[in-house]
Amino acid sequence: MKFNPRLPKTCLHEDCQLFRQCLTRRYEMTYTVKQYGWIRDLPDHRDHLYAAPTTALAALPHMVDLRPHCPPVYDQGQLGSCTANGIAGAIQFDRMKQKLTPAFEPSRLFIYYNERVIEHTVDSDSGAMIRHGIKSVAEQGDCPEKEWPYDIEKFAVKPPAACYKDASVMFS
């Protein structure tokens, strides 16, 4: 990576693709830009930035490696379902951390469909906001991946009623 001093130090573009282009020109990097489906959350007056108290930070270890306790990384393939994949991984990690049984692999396609219901974009592979994915899981839960498997051809198909029933039971 070679630094190009003629370009500005910061990029003010809101669009991530333009930011990547500026960064690429500044450091003369080459890589493939992929669109994974994340949509920036809209501002919400209830959002707060968290800052841990300094005393709590001082008590933390210098380094922690949680990888041995994490589920395998999901492959979203060519579907813009990154928020659903991330949320499913977080659910699975949290359940493993709490030693909850049964072992549960959340349905990523169920989350992706329902976050797009909130956004009124069910018929398109349009990505989603993390806030809407979390909201959908908080309100109705998630069914097991075995029940509604990650088949990207079915991204616009509504999951069966049994999935919604099982989702509410799993998260009650």
CATH homologous superfamily title of the largest domain: Cysteine proteinases
Stretches where pLDDT is under 50 for at least 5 consecutive residues are: 1-34
Radius of gyration: 19 Å
Helix content: 25-40%
Number of helices: 6
User: How is the CATH topology of the largest domain named?
Assistant: Cathepsin B, Chain A
Structural class: mainly alpha
| Number of domain units | 2
Query: How much strand?
Result: under 5%
CATH class annotation of the largest domain: Alpha Beta
GO molecular function: peptidase activity
Protein name: Papain cysteine protease protein
Keywords: Hydrolase, Protease
InterPro entries: Papain-like_cys_pep_sf (IPR038765)
Question: Can you tag this structure with a few keywords?
Answer:
globular, mainly alpha, 6 helices, 172 residues, Cathepsin B, Chain A, single chain
Summarize the structure.
With 172 residues, the protein is mainly α. It has helices at residues 16-27, 54-58, 82-97, 108-119, 130-140, 161-170. It folds into 2 domains: 1-33, no CATH class; 74-170, Cysteine proteinases (Cathepsin B, Chain A, Alpha-Beta Complex).
Detailed description of the structure:
This protein is mainly alpha-helical. It has helices at residues 16-27, 54-58, 82-97, 108-119, 130-140, 161-170. The radius of gyration is 19 Å and the shape is globular. The termini are far apart. Mean pLDDT is 82; it is low at 1-34. Keywords: Hydrolase, Protease.
